[in-house]
Amino acid sequence: KKISDILEKSAPKPGVPADLQNLLSQHFGENRSVIEIEELKLSDSCFLPANDLTHSFSSYLKEICPKWAKLRKNHKEKKSVVMLVICSSALRSLELIKSMTAFKGDCRVLKLFARHIKIKEQMSMLEKGVFHIGVGTPGRVKALVEQDGLCLNSTKYMILDWNWRDQKLRKMMDIPEIKKETIDLLEMSIIKLCREGSVKLGLF
């Protein structure tokens, strides 16, 4: 049976924090020591409420971030965003940006994917202006962090587009390349920031 045949018949189940934790344990379990795996564990306090599939993107963001107007007003740092949204493709990024209109108000959103946008352009935009939300793919976000184009110190929220399925009914974590890049990004800096309490993770 194809995975899409099985998925078509199964009712969608919303992602929960344990799903991400299990995924990380499986991914690192084979080649890490027990101590190293402990350091990659995230407690439930690192997570925002997960989407129960009843929300639109804007209504979900309003629920997890009721003080957005204040956060947005206080954010003055360049090369950084308050909220980072990670999804599987450039097209999905554009969809999510459109669907957060009711939430974002007049704040500035930056597209963080590779299609038609050079990384140098994104770096110079981040350097010159103040952006509140970044929406994009894990590979490009990771590259920006590695090249010091994006600093995560001001980031408070990281939302993974966890439940959405593409035309082949794959979630972002069903696509090997996206899964690997997302886990790399989490391991590189996000997990540490979550454990320190400065970033909260949301599964939409």
From TrEMBL:
Its domain of life? Answer: Eukaryota
State the InterPro entries in the record: Cms1, P-loop_NTPase
Region forming the signal peptide: none
Q: Which Gene3D superfamilies match?
A: P-loop containing nucleotide triphosphate hydrolases (3.40.50.300)
Cellular component terms (Gene Ontology): 90S preribosome; nucleus
Q: Which PANTHER family does its entry note?
A: PROTEIN CMSS1
Q: What is the protein name stated in its UniProt record? A: CMS1 protein
Task: State the gene name recorded for this protein.
Answer: Cmss1
